Amino acid sequence: MLLLVTGRGRVAVRLRPGNGEELVADADFSDCVELQPELKRLKLGKNNWDTDTDEFDEVVTEIASQKHAYEVVAQPVVEVSPVIPLVYGN
């Protein structure tokens, strides 16, 4: 989700819940994706030795509801300024 706030973009990331195929296959991505919401970071494992860590304005976990994601990310700025949240994902 991308929000423009007073001329600056805010970027939030949410790890989506597993889809039907992933749940049936009992897929586990914890070895390649690690959310660190308290630090507002997402760590992606490239292989067994190399990782990329990115920082965001907000990090929302996969167990958070849509309502919680809205309340944390969009509601604070939508209520005080004319913004358009841009959401991208699958």
What is this structure, in a nutshell?
It contains 2 helices and 6 strands, in the order ββαββββα. It is α+β, with helices and mostly antiparallel strands and 90 residues long.
Task: Walk me through the topology.
Layout lengths: L1 E4 L2 E7 L5 H5 L8 E4 L4 E5 L5 E5 L2 E3 L5 H13 L12
Parallel strand pairs: 2-6
Antiparallel strand pairs: 1-2, 3-4, 4-5
Which short descriptors sum up this protein?
single chain, 90 residues, disordered N terminus, globular, 2 helices, 3-stranded antiparallel sheet
Structure characterization notes:
The protein has 90 residues and is of the alpha+beta class. 20% of the residues lie in helices and 31% in strands. It contains 2 helices and 6 strands; from the N terminus they run E-E-H-E-E-E-E-H. The protein has a 3-stranded mixed β-sheet with strand order 1-2-6, covered by helices on one side. It has a 3-stranded antiparallel β-sheet with strand order 3-4-5, with no helix packed on it. Strand 3 and strand 4 form a beta hairpin. The protein is globular and about 45 Å long. It starts with a strand and ends in a 12-residue tail after the last helix.
